[in-house]
Amino acid sequence: MAANIIDGKAFAAKVRGQVAEHVARLKEVHGITPGLAVVLVGEDPASQVYVRSKGKQTVEVGMNSYEHKLDAETSEADLLALIDQLNNDPAVHGILVQLPLPKHLDEDLVINSIAPAKDVDGFHISNVGLLGTGQKSMVPCTPLGCLMMLRDYHGSLSGMDAVVIGRSNIVGKPMAQLLLGDSCTVTIAHSRTKDLPDVVRRADIVVAAVGRPEMVPGDWIKEGATVIDVGINRIERDGKNVLVGDVDFASAAARAGAITPVPGGVGPMTIACLLANTVTACCRANGLAEPEGLTA
Ligand code: NAD
User: What single string gives the DSSP state of each residue in 247-278?
Assistant: First the structure.
């Protein structure tokens, strides 16, 4: 049986459409334009691409985009002063500091200096705690995108066995919290997990967030399971640079019930969810109803 392909590109376009509609209503009815500030320190080429793409998509859905590009040598005090200024700027509803930061800057300190209500990446310790205790929070964008696709495909996730491979603060841990919040029975697997194939074979839902090209072969996948591949790995194949996930797509698609491709699966959902989080933050800041279906 060939798996259904979960089209993240099309889903992300739908989410951006919903965000744009909500932004238009906020402008027309309330005279409010949501604003997202993105802070980039240094000149990491991949980060520059992400920041450009975030800015472009922010403007495309009708929001204001504020880009702050700082020198790689920027001091911690200067970066914290900028964040303080953005925290107090009523035109800014979301703040994102592009990671990784240069080595001399303390990432935890910087992230935890963002006002939690404006922390659209959902990395602030307050948001981590709120998510862990099932309270309203800002939810990290990549796991939020995975959850949206899973809910869209299955309706209810209640009672399903889910395995998340990877325990990072950015993807694995918040993903596991979200699946638990939707009443899955959740296992978090990682580099020290004993007999990973056996753990994965029990799962109705597999979320792979490792960063190892095609490490999950099809024969680890339970017949009919849903596979969400978060991995983005650049490899050389037949003399060409190609992007592959953490799952061996061809063999997994032969066993899975549904699977996200790489590229075109989870990737496009991440920025769409950043825009969704910004509009949610804007509504919360103004005491307005949040857009339905765009939060966890
Ligand atoms: P990370 O390096 O922070 O974490 C990787 C995790 O994988 C660790 O918890 C580690 O324990 C686990 N791991 C390592 N080797 C393993 C093994 N052999 N078996 C089982 N587990 C193992 O990475 P991350 O930031 O969580 O990202 C994971 C992947 O997802 C990367 O490929 C990254 O590029 C991708 N990613 C994609 C998006 C997106 O928008 N689609 C966003 C974030 C990350």
Answer: B-HHHHHTT-SEE--SSSSHHHHHHHHHHHHH
